[in-house]
Design brief:
3 helices, 3 strands, 3-stranded antiparallel beta sheet, alpha+beta
Length: 103
C-alpha cells in the first residue's frame, strides 16, 4: 500500500493480508494553528469596505467559512459590532398620465 496522506500512516503489506509493519509519521499535520489575534485581524480585514471574504481568506491561506466563523465568534464575544444590513434605498415612484400631454 502507499502513504495515506489523511492519516499520515504508511502500511507495508498486501491489501488482502495482514499488516506486517505500521509506521506513524509525526510532525505537522498540515493544519495551521492561528492565534486569536491573527483570527481577529483577518476577520476585521474581511469587513473593510470593498473587501471580499473569499479573497481575504485565500490571501491568508484560510477558507471563507473559517472567516465567517471567526467573525461570528468575535461578534458573540462583543469584539465586533453586530452585523447590520445596509439600509434599503428606493427611487421615488412618479406616475404621470400619459394622455395629458396628447390633448
Amino acid at each position: 500500500m502507499g502513504l495515506d496522506s489523511k492519516k499520515d500512516v504508511h502500511l507495508d503489506g498486501s491489501s488482502a493480508g495482514s499488516v506486517s509493519r505500521l509506521e506513524i509519521l509525526e510532525g505537522p499535520s498540515g493544519r495551521r494553528v492561528r492565534s486569536e489575534a491573527e483570527r481577529a485581524r483577518i476577520a476585521a480585514e474581511s469587513l473593510l469596505p470593498g473587501a471580499q471574504v473569499s479573497e481575504v481568506a485565500r490571501k491568508h491561506g484560510a477558507t471563507r467559512w473559517q472567516v465567517y466563523d471567526w467573525r461570528r465568534r468575535l461578534r458573540q464575544r462583543g469584539m465586533l459590532p453586530p452585523c447590520e444590513a445596509s439600509p434599503s434605498t428606493f427611487a421615488p415612484l412618479v406616475v404621470e398620465d400619459a394622455l395629458e400631454g396628447v390633448r
